[in-house]
Design goal:
- By secondary structure, the protein is α+β, with helices and mostly antiparallel strands.
- It has one domain: Alpha-Beta Plaits.
- Helices cover 39% and strands 25% of the residues.
- It has a 4-stranded antiparallel β-sheet, with no helix packed on it.
- A hairpin with a 4-residue loop joins β2 and β3.
- The longest helix has 10 residues.
- 10% of the residues are buried.
């Protein structure tokens, strides 16, 4: 199982709306994430909009690829695109900066 951490940046003027959307993630999106192998998926955000994501998955590349092949992900990513800065017009799932794991207490 791979443990993956990543960062993104939410626009400061859209923080509350971003959080509200994530209180009501579409059931179809949750199902698609589970089917694609996303486990123990969490998002954490600082007051300045820095977003840290964590997920466990058998294969990060496969988990991304499987989601990219779904219509529900395309709709979700299009809806969420205006919330992010610094990703150069990409969808958030294409602009995530993957972090190197340097320690894990097993």
């Amino acid at each position: 199982m791979q443990r993956v951490g990543f960062v993104l940046k939410v626009k400061p003027d859209m923080l509350e709306e971003y959080k509200e959307i994530h209180r009501k993630v579409w059931p179809e999106m949750l199902e698609a994430l589970s089917k694609a192998g996303w486990r123990n998926y969490s998002l954490f955000m600082r007051e300045d909009g820095t977003l840290f994501g964590y997920v466990e998955t058998p294969s990060w590349e496969e988990a991304l690829s499987k989601m990219a092949d779904t219509e529900i992900n395309a709709r979700w990513q299009t809806m969420m695109a205006p919330y992010f800065e610094g990703i150069g017009g990409k969808h958030a799932d294409e602009g995530m900066l993957k972090l190197e794991e340097v320690f894990h207490l097993d």
